[in-house]
Write a structure and sequence with these properties.
mainly beta, three-stranded antiparallel beta sheet, elongated
Amino acid sequence: KEIHVVAELPGLEERDIDLSLRDGVLTIKGEKSRKTNGAIYSERWHGQFTRSVELGPDIDPDKIKASFDKGVLTITVEKQPNPRTDVKKITINKS
């Protein structure tokens, strides 16, 4: 009935994350800025990232929920009760 996508994004805030859905593909984009806080040496990751997850054609784009708590992004997408399973016949022409 539902699809859950969970992403751990430590050190980010909600405003640093961009979520989008297009043609059944969920895309998570974000950027973590570099903060050294006066440190001479740091092994923290920083920069931009993009992850895409194909959710399939049977999801309901109007029923998506996202929450962000303590660095964990949770996205819940409901499936459509009667997904379209149309099959289109494609004619092959001689060349």
